[in-house]
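Exercise 7b. Backbone tokens:
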């Protein structure tokens, strides 16, 4: 487990140490998502946040379902009834 004591600058900036950025696979300009969870700031690489969101949705979508095609079919049907 990596740990570091960080100092926040007067403008609110905090530098993530190089070793942590490397462990997270963050390159220069890498995007992170910040969440406040029970009074704790959690930083997560955006790719990891997307994978977590996809896994959450996958729990509610049947295997093999094509949500895009279902939406498109619903839109086509609605347009035909106009």
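Sequence design result:
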């Amino acid at each position: 487990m990596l740990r570091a004591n960080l100092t926040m600058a007067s403008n609110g900036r905090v530098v993530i140490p190089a070793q942590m950025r490397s462990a997270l696979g963050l390159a220069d300009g890498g995007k992170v998502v910040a969440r406040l969870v029970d009074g704790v700031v959690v930083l997560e690489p955006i790719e990891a946040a997307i994978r977590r969101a996809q896994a959450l949705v996958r729990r509610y979508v049947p295997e093999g379902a094509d949500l895009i095609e279902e939406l498109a079919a619903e839109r086509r049907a609605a347009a035909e009834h106009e």
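Instructor comment: Residues 67-80 form the longest helix (14 residues). The mean pLDDT is 92.
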